[in-house]
Amino acid sequence: MGSLRFKIIFYIGVFVLTFLMASRGYSTLHIAATVVVAGSLAFLPYVYALLIEKRIDRLETFLRKQKGNPAIYINYVLANKLEDEASSIMAQLIRKYKEPNKQALFKAAYGLYRKDMNAVREAVPYIRLSNYRAYYEVILLVEDGRSDQALGALDAIKRPWMRSALMAEIELRAGRHDAASQHAREALRAVRGVHRYVMYKEYERLLPQSIAGLSY
Question: Model confidence over 92-114: pLDDT tens digits?
Answer without folding.
Answer: 999 999 999 999 999 999 999 99
